[in-house]
Amino acid sequence: MFPPIETSSEKPEKTAPPGDPRDQRVGIAIVGVGRISVNEVLPAFAHSKHCKPVVLVSGDRAKALKIAKQYDIPESAVLDYRDYDKLAQMPAVEGVYIALPNSMHAEYTIRAARAGKHVLCEKPMANTVAECEQMIDACRQAGRKLMIAYRRQYSPLDRALLKMIREGRFGPLREFISVNSQNMGDPQHWRLKRALAGGGALPDVGLYCINEARFLSGEEPVDVIGNTWSTPGDARFEEVEEHCQFILRFPSGFTASCSTGYSSHKSQMFRLNADTAWAEMSPAYAYEGNKLRISRQVEGKEHTAELQIEEGNQFARELDHFAQCVRKNQEPHTPGEEGLQDQRVIEAIYASARSGKSVKLSPPSGKTRGPEPESESTGNLAGP
Amino acid sequence: MFPPIETSSEKPEKTAPPGDPRDQRVGIAIVGVGRISVNEVLPAFAHSKHCKPVVLVSGDRAKALKIAKQYDIPESAVLDYRDYDKLAQMPAVEGVYIALPNSMHAEYTIRAARAGKHVLCEKPMANTVAECEQMIDACRQAGRKLMIAYRRQYSPLDRALLKMIREGRFGPLREFISVNSQNMGDPQHWRLKRALAGGGALPDVGLYCINEARFLSGEEPVDVIGNTWSTPGDARFEEVEEHCQFILRFPSGFTASCSTGYSSHKSQMFRLNADTAWAEMSPAYAYEGNKLRISRQVEGKEHTAELQIEEGNQFARELDHFAQCVRKNQEPHTPGEEGLQDQRVIEAIYASARSGKSVKLSPPSGKTRGPEPESESTGNLAGP
Amino acid sequence: MFPPIETSSEKPEKTAPPGDPRDQRVGIAIVGVGRISVNEVLPAFAHSKHCKPVVLVSGDRAKALKIAKQYDIPESAVLDYRDYDKLAQMPAVEGVYIALPNSMHAEYTIRAARAGKHVLCEKPMANTVAECEQMIDACRQAGRKLMIAYRRQYSPLDRALLKMIREGRFGPLREFISVNSQNMGDPQHWRLKRALAGGGALPDVGLYCINEARFLSGEEPVDVIGNTWSTPGDARFEEVEEHCQFILRFPSGFTASCSTGYSSHKSQMFRLNADTAWAEMSPAYAYEGNKLRISRQVEGKEHTAELQIEEGNQFARELDHFAQCVRKNQEPHTPGEEGLQDQRVIEAIYASARSGKSVKLSPPSGKTRGPEPESESTGNLAGP
Amino acid sequence: MFPPIETSSEKPEKTAPPGDPRDQRVGIAIVGVGRISVNEVLPAFAHSKHCKPVVLVSGDRAKALKIAKQYDIPESAVLDYRDYDKLAQMPAVEGVYIALPNSMHAEYTIRAARAGKHVLCEKPMANTVAECEQMIDACRQAGRKLMIAYRRQYSPLDRALLKMIREGRFGPLREFISVNSQNMGDPQHWRLKRALAGGGALPDVGLYCINEARFLSGEEPVDVIGNTWSTPGDARFEEVEEHCQFILRFPSGFTASCSTGYSSHKSQMFRLNADTAWAEMSPAYAYEGNKLRISRQVEGKEHTAELQIEEGNQFARELDHFAQCVRKNQEPHTPGEEGLQDQRVIEAIYASARSGKSVKLSPPSGKTRGPEPESESTGNLAGP
Known about the structure:
The structure is a homotetramer.
Chain A: E1 26-31, H1 35-44, E2 51-57, H2 61-70, E3 78-79, E4 95-98, H3 105-114, E5 118-121, H4 129-142, E6 146-148, H5 156-166, E7 173-183, H6 194-197, H7 201-217, E8 223-229, E9 243-249, E10 255-261, E11 263-274, E12 278-281, E13 292-298, E14 301-308, H8 314-328, H9 336-355, E15 359-360
Parallel strand pairs in A: 1-2, 1-4, 2-3, 4-5, 5-6, 7-10
Antiparallel strand pairs in A: 7-11, 8-9, 8-15, 9-10, 11-12, 12-13, 13-14
Helix pairs in contact in A: 3-4, 4-9, 7-9
């Protein structure tokens, strides 16, 4: 749109191509109006090119009405969970975004698929492998897309790192170490209830470490070791683990060593050691502010370079990828199979922690990822 | 809205209070649809609580119509410059945002005021002190607000630093050094034409250094030394200076030494030396990614701390402050007088560079800043 | 010696107190003239206050003579290993510094003790728990000091962190993650031969992670999980492990997750997660350039502070602590018992890796550390 | 000496070549036993390959005797200033290192030359241009070397940056900004007495900024602007300036903007802006811990790389360069002419500050630098 204002040695300008007119966008029903919906996903629509929010589903009608007003969603489009199946009669809704407690992911995904809607489901996909499989089956039978919201796989930072790995810039990968921890407060929060959350730190924040190691290496773990701990008497951890450490061994010998906790000051990073370089993301996994550094010898000196890569809005990227899959009828890059595989790893970690023995893991039954996201979808740096 | 999920030692949650319903927002006409409007200001409305874009004024109707569509602005609200005075008949427009070449700021501000509109004008305010004074007069006579878009004065990073300075945490300020440079390309760009831009690097990017030194110290310069340079034969700098260095001396002895250029790789930082600490912003003045570090002795060891303070969208903050001034009928924090004073400094720098002598500067005739922005207006971190 | 030149808000001056006159220093025989002796320990004597090198023991007389000349060591004080027991007749030698391949540590320590010499032995202490116990016994029976060269326990960086932990500044410790890896070349190097090295990455560089976790927490592991890997066909790893991951669980629930490798680009760091803060050393474990950062909430903002603490020469600190223990007849801070305990952990890790099961570890039979090093010994920042 | 232990992608090992046997080293008389001698220079001899300290000259015999003992300097080699000319009768002394108050540099340099000694003189070279010229003349007439102790010109960090500049990696240089400030305490210190110090912050710490800009650009300033300030009533600054800002313009248009102060918390950095990159040293000018970062576009992304380059002991490098010039009878890289030129710049800055006008500076009458230091002399990273 504009000719370059600066010389060619400067950062290319990022004038975003225009988003779709509103009447051509994929309409999304937001299912669950909690923190992630209010603080992250609803604001992200302002950065989306292909989506618009059209329905809110919530058990707290007063709150939902207030929020609906902010987003020009009419009162008639604010539904209670009892009305969920009415989505089938709302053609403006093409997809649903599931942001409910983990234990409800399976039911509300399956019902959405049966109502003819495509599904973008938050991670973790569900609480059990069995639930994951049911979700995949339901969407397949309904001919609807199922995408799990692994936002890091769409981030330009992670994709830039993946590209360098694939080009062999660092040689073979050897070791991945990562921590993702935060410090929980209220013991009554649903994330600390086993029936709702399925576990503690592991499925919530530890999941990022698992997924990142699998994503960057392109391999699947064959051997899993796990350890869990809850401090006796800490009311927060009567039902779920306080922290969890695990080692994943992949076929090439690449190994991931991770620690995830619910009682530590927020701490998020990974380091990836390869033959001729290391890469570090610190912070990692965050909604914003993630930083990538790469260290290697250049002309006989160690260079540790920070790469300035704008992530833009991670949630908008996800939404836009989902919308493109709907419009172009293609498999999401992170389909249900990707979530299922992480759930298989989680169950193996818990099994190992219970038995004190390492656990073998068979490969997934097929590919867990669809086609790469279009680079266009990673270009929405500057807004609509 | 949500009870805290994490312990009290963790970062407080930032669930943004809801923005105003659209029908209560201040309607803004965007005057000039160039880079800053398209890439920064129009997207920023998604983060604004109190504003909405309602009119586009552009000389390129085709481009403007395309953009209008993105923002649900009807075709009838896309004006040509010839129709500018019709704004007087458009009650939906309460304020204008002036994003034109510098030489047009005065005319379009004055005409807006006469049309009964409040004005938010980009920096630099104008090309001459005389123009600045006319703009102030016109708005005063029309009883309209005039605010200059000094976004750094609204950023939580700069305000946190200012707060620490005012609390005496660092002792008296001594030295400020700063650079703000970038590398221009096309010699035909209006920023390289004296008649349009008023100067080269100094009024465009060097202005940030002047304003930051004044803002952080709360003082006004009394003595100005300047130096300018243009490489002979470089087509970009036939009309305006390539780079400029200047020293500003303030009454307390605090001194700012700055360098600003149009032929260097993008480089933006300042360091502020005080009696017992230094503070550094690097990058500084950027649309995003600015980082603040403070270094001082703590328990006998030098601690260099980076403060993680989310800036959010700087343009949305400005817009919201402007809207609040309109709604509450109060003086903007950065009114025309603030822009006028910077223009006086710029003229003194140029005068010194021409004469090779230091130039005395009398104090401004009155206060240059209105009341502090409400902290509420600096809380829009997470979106609408 | 000098009155302060700067104000009290500045870094205190570090004019080192003078070292002992040479004739009062503890004379050291350097046993083994390989990399660590030539590149690190011999130059470190220039920074030592209490030691001097008086004898070299080497199998390569030509090389040793050349080096002796640099350090004013007479030809008569260059011994072959066959002459090792002649140390008993050399009263100028009060202590020996053992810098031999790991498998020789036990023999040369025991023979030194029998010759009446105090022993400062490089890490790892030995290749087996049995050897460690024999070394301790031999020194005890001979009434000689035995110190293991755990240089990190004497570094002002690590000790500053330990002090903050003990003062409760971060609340309870939760998780420690660490990596210490490097990329080996020549497959014939003794470090890649099991008989000489006792193992691969684990006893050489992984040992730092074990020791740091024990040192910082003040706890001893009760549960150990290990994993090892060697890439088939890589000539470097036919005898020893290529990389190793392990999880150590301590009684309080504190857990260390570590990865150590011999086929990765040099990568050294740890992060310690506690209740209200995290601390990170990156690089860690290095001879110089280690950096400590601590992150926590201060007045509602996350502050990530880098602490500038000069480490000075780590080898000089060790030597001086050793000399003081000799002169004052006190137990070293890191005696043989400290090395023995690490060896017990190493054997447990290997046992777990072989069996695929977690391994319980009983507590050490007594204290593993002597009195804290005097702060005087951590003040030798500026040289002799 | 040792075959490489790590793969070729790792940092090359730095086993230092052995230093000269003591009887072949250049014997140095240390003239002045103040801070820099005791804390920096005397300890640095341990890292020198070619020098040894053989005489101390001091007005405080008790202190000097204590220090002499540390360095095996016999009592007979501890001289009073009254005995200075006896150096002529001491053939073991080949060179002197002048570490006296600035006002004494000229006299003691000239007397040393007349006594037949080579001279390594601390910066600033002297208090006036006239003194500098007398020093150069005296050494020339005596056929002795005169070297000024500009340690940064021998540092591998600065030389690596210079090499990249010369190779054109960043394109033409445009702007240099720098600060070098510290916070003085005792008003009675000689550095705050005009007769002894010649000035305040400028000749002491500001000098580094001048020299660095000249060194990196390879140009000489043609136009100088200066500003000085002393806070009325501050007892420290009754005789000398508190802080000083200056702008140096070089023939190509390259410009240095610097600020130096004696009342700010220690703050040391420079940034160099060039056409396609910027380089920053922060901290800069320090005895240790200087860090070099370079930022530029690589494959469309901004990479900000920190280069890990070990500086080793800066004082040992200087001493060894000096010794090599003596042994090989060659001009030092930073001879008297280099110090003279900086003094000319200092006088121009002061003249400009007094007059409020820019001051023209003619080029130096000839080359100010001798041959580049041998790279061998920059390899003494690990000790003797």
